[in-house]
Amino acid sequence: MRHLRQALVAILTARRPHGRSCLAMLLLIAGTCYAAHPSEYQLKTVFLFDFAQSVEWPASAFPSRASPFVIGVLGTDPFGPQLDALVRDKAIHRRSVIIERYRNIDELHRCNILFIGQSQPPELLRILESLRGRSVLTVSDADEAEQNGVMIRLITQGNRIRLRINLAAARADKLVISSRLLRLAAS
Question: Would 3 be classed as within a structural domain?
């Protein structure tokens, strides 16, 4: 399993973005034949990292050229140390990557991607309102999240993870989602 994770990280950080996701998914499928099945959140961790490479942020989303790329997790953290391990010593758009965890929206400082955990739906509208205009890619696996304004919803169906993208919400915050990611969501 360790070798599988290392191979996934190598592919996801490759310079050819189009082949990266296809190869990563092939490795995941092949790896499940020889190792224990990856958990739902191991797969979602890979998706989060891929989103970071498949979306363009405006320059105003970063206080300076040296600012790190921040992935935040709001609410109960379903990823545990897997997310930290995946981004360790990696760069996204030539920026170092850090993971921040927030118990509630009041702790949120600045992040580029915010995963909103399933424990947060009662506060979802308030969370999204507080992020409006800040160019934060919002991701959640909560029911009907994209209908409430979350930009990417991760849906688990059987042993597959599907994406639903709210393109209008992303465009309103000046985020550009790659056509490759849009095609993946449409399939």
Answer: no
Residue that is written with structure tokens 């050819």 in the block: 16
Residue type, 123: E
Does pTM surpass 0.85? Answer: no
Instruction: Calculate helix-pair angle for 40-54, 179-186, nearest 10 degrees.
Output: 140
| Domain of residue 107, CATH code | 3.40.50.2300
Of all helices (H) and strands (E), which one includes residue 110? Answer: none
**Which amino acid, residue 41?**
Y
| Alpha-carbon gap, residue 127 to 134, rounded angstroms | 12
Return the bridge partners of 95, or none: 92
3-state secondary structure of 109: coil
Q: pLDDT tens digits for 3-35?
A: 444 444 444 445 444 445 444 443 444 444 334
Domain assignment present for residue 12? The answer is: no
